[in-house]
Design brief:
This protein is of the alpha+beta class. Helix content is 35%, strand content 28%. The two termini are 31 Å apart.
Length: 93
Amino acid sequence: MSERYPAQTEVPVHIPTLDGKAIAETVLVKVPCRVDEESGEAILGGEALRIIDRIKARHMGLLLPEEIQLLRDRLRLTQAEMAELLQIGAKSY
């Protein structure tokens, strides 16, 4: 944990179904936070949000952005070639 976010809190992370229309499951995740002195409320920063996004991706079976880049590098593909392979726009993937 950093000095800026010295505390931790446990937050429920709702994992959506693949179609995004429902919640498949909810998992509790410990993330760094800052506690507001007046209200006692836990305030989440960028690191906590990245952790939450990674948890969602893992539970949904999705690749993380750096994993996609490593895969593209291993295959020696340009971004345009990768987009064509995936049949999506270059900025979508």
